[in-house]
Amino acid sequence: MTATAYPVVGRREFLLGTLALGVMASLPGVAFAQVAADPASDAVRRLMVLSTQNALNRLGQPNGFLTSNVARFGMPVLFAKGAATATGPLSQGAFRQELIQKLNYFAEAGARGAVPAMAEASRKLPIPNATAIVQGQPTAATSALRLEMGSGLVNALRGPIEQALVAAQDPIIAQAVAALPGVTLRDVAQAIALSADNGIWYEIGSAEAELRANPAASGDSALVAGLAAARAPVPAPLPPAAPRP
């Protein structure tokens, strides 16, 4: 597997950022409907839009999921339970590995199709405390977006994935579906979307960390200025102590 070249944010760090945003949103007087029109709010919104677009565009490339060390996923629960996994193609290790690769491949279509919905959500998300987000964890903006969207990413992924499955009529997917009574391509699309959800958020978090580490590389001068303006001020050095008489 080829490792990606951008900063990898640990899952523990990402989850801590999400927890911190949840606590902040529950505090009295803090509401996602309250937005301060200031450079910090603009910087957070730009972080959200750019990080989601960068991450989804990366994952939408050929083998985007398979070569990502945070987004690639294993066998969805749909194909890993029931009597069908004891016999037939789903009981064969080689077939299961090929199926996992196919499912990751079809997740690429979901990533590409979800770009508009995610960009729209990023632009509309109310921001309660932009300065705290800018000064917070490297994935704080991603955590705020995920907290607000809930299952929105899964919903954005499912339709494009189902369309890709129907159009491809892939024989490996067809064999797997035939082994599971009552399962349809819509069910497969849902399973892929659910399996890809966490990994995509980690990818978005990594993209945000990358933007924070080198905002100038984005070519977005407003992002650079907003991040700089909202950073915690550096304390002035203490004056030297007066010499004792």
> What assembly state would you assign to the polypeptide chains in this entry?
single chain
Estimate percent helicity.
Answer: 55-70%
Q: List the total number of helices.
A: 9
Q: Please report which band the strand proportion falls in: under 5%, 5-15%, 15-25%, 25-35%, 35-45% or over 45%.
A: under 5%
Structural class: mainly alpha
- N→C terminal distance: 69 Å
Mean pLDDT: 83
User: What is the succession of H and E elements?
Assistant: HHHHHHHHH
- The tally of strands reads 0
How many domains is the backbone divided into? 1
Q: Choose one word for the global shape.
A: elongated
Rg calc? 22 Å
- Largest sheet, strands/sense/barrel: none
Low-pLDDT ranges: 1-36
Pfam family, one: DUF4197
InterPro entries: DUF4197, TAT_signal
Organism: Novosphingobium anseongense
Protein name: DUF4197 family protein
Q: Would you give an account of this structure?
A:
The protein is mainly α and 245 residues long. It has one domain (11-27, 34-229). It has helices spanning 11-26, 39-59, 93-124, 130-134, 140-149, 152-168, 171-178, 185-213, 221-230. Helix 1 crosses helix 5 (140-149) and helix 5 packs antiparallel against helix 8. This is DUF4197 family protein. InterPro entries: DUF4197 (IPR025245), TAT_signal (IPR006311). It comes from Novosphingobium anseongense.
How does the SSE layout of this entry go?
Elements: H1 11-26, H2 39-59, H3 93-124, H4 130-134, H5 140-149, H6 152-168, H7 171-178, H8 185-213, H9 221-230
Helix pairs in contact: 1-5, 2-3, 2-8, 2-9, 3-6, 3-8, 5-8, 6-8
